[in-house]
Design a protein that fits this description.
alpha/beta, seven-stranded mixed β-sheet
């Protein structure tokens, strides 16, 4: 297995159009990475979800042009299902939608999720009014109808296994958290891709996941480093027939899902 360049590749005019649209949706703060402390309620939610709120207030973002490069390098195609686990304010999800993906962000922090909802409302309004350049060499791909959503939930409780591509900025995650992600990700369809800061295949005493194989690395700029390394994994095969698929997960279409139910 190896990386498979040849995915979505926006022209420079299309990138400019997408960035201009997102800049308006995010009130001119598209390239500003927020460092606000999370609320006491958010800290309690993280502590309930993973046993501790340590590191929950540390926040960073992948560069948007770097994200588009990532989409090309992993072979993401228009119409593919994309999930951002721990989506923050939702910028990658919004860009993925403008690039033609069916995009879903999952975020436990109510404050960060609220920011994504606010930007989404503005973005949908802008898209409905603007004459976006669609199609052709310099246009944006056709956007998936109703193809963007943000869920306020723990991503451990949402069924993201229909994904073609998952991104998770697991930089501050413990190995136990990474193992819980791998445990769910191995139920994705063969050929699906997971991009994470950590390796997912061999987590020592926390678990071995032979369904996942690391196929390469991608170096992209982030808000905390010019050259952050992201590990790219592919789902090789389904778990053994004797294993039972997780039954406790909420479906992504359940917009009413709440994180503490």
């Amino acid at each position: 297995c190896a990386l498979r360049p040849g995915g979505i590749k926006l022209s420079e005019p299309a990138q400019v159009a997408a960035l201009d649209m997102l800049s308006s949706a995010y009130d001119g703060r598209l390239f500003v990475c927020p460092h606000d402390e999370i609320s006491p309620d958010d800290k309690a939610a993280f502590a309930e979800d993973v046993g501790s709120s340590r590191g929950a207030d540390t926040y960073g973002e992948l560069d948007l042009i770097g994200f588009l490069d990532m989409l090309w390098r992993v072979g993401a195609k228009p119409g593919a299902r994309f999930y951002d686990l721990g989506a923050g304010s939702g910028k990658l999800v919004a860009m993925a939608w403008l690039a033609g993906l069916h995009a879903t962000g999952i975020e436990l922090s109510e404050g960060r999720w609220a920011a994504s909802q606010s930007a989404l409302t503005e973005l949908v309004d802008l898209v409905s009014k603007a004459a976006l350049p669609l199609g052709g060499a310099d246009g944006l791909p056709a956007m998936c109808e109703s193809g963007i959503s943000f869920l306020h939930s723990s991503f451990f409780k949402v069924d993201f296994t229909d994904a073609d591509l998952v991104f998770v900025a697991s930089t501050m995650f413990t190995k136990s958290m990474v193992a819980k992600i791998a445990e769910l990700a191995r139920w994705m369809k063969p050929g699906a891709v997971i991009v994470a800061y950590h390796g997912l295949h061999d987590l020592g005493r926390f678990g071995q996941f032979p369904e996942l194989v690391e196929i390469g690395e991608i170096i992209e700029r982030t808000s905390w480093c010019l050259d952050t390394c992201w590990r790219v994994h592919e789902v090789l095969h389904a778990p053994a027939e004797s294993e039972q698929r997780p039954q406790h997960l909420r479906q992504p279409g359940d917009q009413a899902a709440k994180p503490h139910q």
